[in-house]
Amino acid sequence: MYKIAVLEGDYSGPEMMEAGLAVLKAATQGTDFQYQTTTYPFGGKGIDQVGDPLPQVTIDGCKAADAVLLSAIGGPKYEGAERTPEAGLLGIREALGLFANLRPTHVTKALGNLSPVKEVAGVDFVIVRELTSGIYFGWPRVEGTSEAHDTATYTAPEVERILRVGFKMAQKRDHHVTIVDKANVLATSRLWRAVTKQVAPDYPDVTVDYSYVDAAAMRIISHPHDFDVIITANLFGDILSDEAAVLPGSLGVIPSASLGISGPNLYEPIHGSAPDLVGQNKVNPLSMINSITWMLRQSFDRDDIADQIDSAVQRVLEAGTMTADLGGVASTTDVTNAIVKELEKEGA
Ligand SMILES: NC(=O)C1=CN([C@@H]2O[C@H](COP(=O)(O)OP(=O)(O)OC[C@H]3O[C@@H](n4cnc5c(N)ncnc54)[C@H](O)[C@@H]3O)[C@@H](O)[C@H]2O)C=CC1
Ligand SMILES: CC(C)CC(=O)C(=O)O
Ligand SMILES: [Mg+2]
Questions:
Q1: In what order do the strands lie in the sheet with 207-212?
Q2: Which NCBIfam families match (predicted)?
Q3: Among 41, 269, 325, 342, which has the minimal tally of Cβ within 10 Å of its Cβ?
């Protein structure tokens, strides 16, 4: 019996988690995939329930699980809290040692026509984002009214381990890595380049190029077919992955996987808690559903079940059942129920 830790999120987060778990249940019904979910207090819910966005019970429960599913946290109610939901999010990534965050941009046939950008069908790249260091974690941090400080820090081993994740991934894809940095300004970026030059010879079948982050931001939209694996620092990966989400038409379809050295992986949509959509049955559940298929493949080696969900999703999109962010008129539950129905047809 696999153990899945569930962190259900704030604002629109729980609606997405409910949709994702309904699809997981339908897809695994009648199979030998046995699992139990346990929900832990986390983020804004952690603050509301026990006064802490990341209580110890949640860290312990996640560490003991086989995989963690997380739906986005945060929102207006928690702005200015002493310990914010976002601090809890950074904390769980650190506590589980999840240093590699994989964020794919894959424009399938069904999504190709929905993009505001031209000729994007077939675009397929992955952003490999360093997740537990850089400016989001650097010290000192000084919060002030007349002056404030954030510190960007990287050590060579931190850079090396994320580079190796990206290079190995490129070996299984199109053998092309782009390092995105700001080496014309930042010392940390120059360290990334120096470490890349040491690591790259271990992967002779992979071509490496470098792009400053400002130019990369433009090329992701103007020449998205140029990329295969982008490896980049925490802050740049956060920003560029939201930008890249424009290519398949919406943030609401992009999943992510966060991997560590050992212990459970964590799967979550890349976007936030969409407070503007809360309670309206409008949020796109596909980013959560796609996160769950990734979990089935990566943590449980169940490509068979993941493939069934993926094809059910494609059929539902091709039939035009989609939420407003993709230009449709369907609700969250319409999309979820349509996917469940497709899965039930397969199982029948
Ligand atoms: N992993 C996490 O838990 C993350 C949490 N956040 C937090 O989320 C809160 C809201 O942040 P925002 O800047 O508003 O970003 P957001 O990603 O929640 O929303 C940005 C825009 O995208 C739309 N959107 C996002 N997900 C969608 C979906 N599945 N379907 C349809 N539309 C969707 C929203 O409606 C909004 O218009 C903040 O407190 C932020 O700190 C932000 C990013 C990641
Ligand atoms: C909310 C932040 C802490 C992180 C973020 O935006 C992300 O991981 O995408
Ligand atoms: Mg983000």
A1: 35-39, 2-7, 67-70, 265-269, 255-259, 100-106, 124-130, 229-232, 176-181, 207-212
A2: leuB (TIGR00169)
A3: 325
